[in-house]
Every structure is written in C-alpha cells, then in structure tokens.
Amino acid sequence: MENNLLEKIVEPLLDWYHKNSRCLPWRENREAYRVWVSEIMLQQTRVEAVIPYYERFMKRFPTIASLAACEDEELFKLWEGLGYYSRARNLKKAAQVICAQHQGNFPEEFEEILALPGIGAYTAGAISSIAFEKAKAAVDGNVLRVITRLTRDSHDISDAKFRGQVTEELEKIYPSEGRGDFTQSLMELGAVVCVPNGEPRCGECPLSSLCRAFGSGTQLQYPVKKKKTARKVEQRTVLILQLQDKTALRKRDDKGILSGMWELPNIDGILDEQQVRQWLAEKALAVKEVKTPVNGKKQLKHVFTHIEWHMTYWIIICENEGSDDEIIWVTAEQLENEIALPTAFKKVYRSACIT
C-alpha cells in the first residue's frame, strides 16, 4: 500500500466532509460518552434506524453513572428492536468499569479504552480520534472499501492482518488538526458515496481523480472478501400461550444467542398439534383452544449473524397457569412498556395479531 497515494487524500477528503457531512445527533457534541454510545449502536445497524434510539437513550442515561446504575430490564426495553443485545450488556458493564476504575470519567488513552468490555480496535479508534483528537484510525467495512478501491488492493478484507496494516498506514497520514473529522470523513465517504451495494457515486467523490479503481473502471471488483460460511438453519416451534388477557414468557439461558432475554416458550424442531399438546400436558397446562393465526401464516424466518431460525408457531388458549416455574404471565401493556422481547419473538407475536 503506497503511503504517497494515501497522503494525497487528506486535504480533499476533509474539504469535502466539511461541506457535505450529514447532520447527526452524535456529531453535535463529541463528548466521549456520546461518541461511544453512538458507535456501539451503529454496529450492524443503519444510521436512520439508530437516531431515535440514540436520542431516547441519551435522554434516559445522560451520564456514564446513570447507565452504570440502570436496571437490565429498562436497558433492554430501550434497546428493543436494535438487536444484538450483548452490545447493551457490554455498554452497562463498561460503564460500571469506568465508574469503578476511572472515577466515572471516560478514559482518554487508547489502550484503556480498548480494555473496556465490548470495545474493539475500531470503536477504540473512533472514540480516540473523534472525542480526543488522537491519530487513531477506525477501520471498518466502509473504510476498507474506500481504501481498497482507491489503491486497487486485492487483499481479503476479512483478514485481520490486512485490516491491521490499513489501520497502521492510515495513522501515518493523520493531520495535525481535525483528526476526528478525518476519521469521520472516511466513514462518511464509505457510507454515502463509495457505497457497498450497487454502483458507487464516483461523480460525487472527492477522491475520484486519485482512485485507481475508478481510473480503470474496476470499482465493483473491490473490496475482495472471501465468501461467508452458510448460516446454520434451526427449526423451532414457538408457542403463543394465552390466558385471559395475558401471554406466557420465560427467560432464556444465560449462555448462547439472546442469552438471558425474555422469550415466548419454544421447542427445538417442528412439532405437530399432538406433540404440542403433549408438551403442554407435561407442564400441566390445560388447553381450551388451539387457534389459527388471523393471517393464516404459521411459519416465519428470522436471521441472526450466523444462525437462521425457521419458526412454526401455535396460538394456544389456556385454562390455567400450569406448573412450570420458569413461565410468567404478562399483559400486552407490560410487553409494550416494560418488557423487552427480542425481535424474533416479537415478529411471531405480531404475526399472530396478538394485541
């Protein structure tokens, strides 16, 4: 990777950013706590989706101390719909570490930031440069796409060694002033101009005259990334158990996907009605009626990063609470205002037209 070529991008990129950057709530105030929360929320989530979550979150938890002291259930309810709940757990864990080890002040040194729960090299680099004006790069998929197209580099961008090399080369060219802006200019260019899907908007790019992929018409050949391993498909039977105006929930195990979250009771595999009735009988749940969903659909799919759930669901009207101590019965109002239900199960709940 040619350092001379990279040196030429700094001035035009900063000039473009100052004229064209989007107005986003976390850019109005670059205090480290605010930058940190935004970067965690933005992981694998679109900017447009994050904005209302970010604004609600900062209103409820304006300080690190308030986040550290919050109840998990309230935190998860604020996070509901963003997915990847481990991000929320790690935010709280890191806030508690900051309060315990840094007197509630966000640490300024890169290595101390990197040591916090849930923070990797990209997030630590973003916070270091944006909040503290340090020459630390934040290299994600957007930045790798910009750099590999600019340099026509065919390295596999999923290779951690290559990502480290890009980070190191970028840090050599950081300007003496406006380091946070430079980090954000690279992010911004990859998000709105050098886009991941479809044709890049090369006519709007401040680096087109320098870009080797553009010069050779090979933009869509970069970045190079090895094919993803096919997702594991899991079949699940989900039960929407209703008792008067209440719905049954239970807590998931503390390990694995959606660990410790509330869920609709569910069983591995595809169960027919007889098998469902047998499962309910083992829980001493008396069945009053087995209902067909209003829209007639009984199958839904939900995709996680590495796993795909194919869910068959049943709506069961119960006559009693049964004997399973793990099950609780909650109202629709509680589900709406108090309890966070992961998207996979909320999708089933809504498809069944439960209100």
Structural domain count: 2
- Strand share of the residues? 5-15%
**Largest sheet report:** 8 strands, mixed
| CATH topology name of the largest domain | Endonuclease III, domain 1
Low-pLDDT segments, ≥5 res: none
E-strand count: 8
- Mean pLDDT across the residues is 94
> What top-tier CATH class of the largest domain fits best?
Mainly Alpha
CATH superfamily of the largest domain: Hypothetical protein, domain 2
What is the 3D form? elongated
Number of helices: 16
Description:
This protein has about 350 residues and is of the alpha+beta class. It folds into two domains: about 5-220, Endonuclease III, domain 1 (Orthogonal Bundle); about 230-350, Nucleoside Triphosphate Pyrophosphohydrolase (Alpha-Beta Complex). About 45% of the residues lie in helices and about 15% in strands. The chain is built from 16 helices and eight strands. Strands 1, 2, 3, 4, 5, 6, 7 and 8 form an eight-stranded mixed beta sheet that branches. Strand 1 (about 230-245) and strand 2 form a beta hairpin. Helix 10 packs across helix 12 (about 180-190). It is elongated, with a radius of gyration of 24 Å.
Give the structure's gist in a few sentences:
By secondary structure, the chain is of the alpha+beta class. It contains 16 helices and 8 strands.
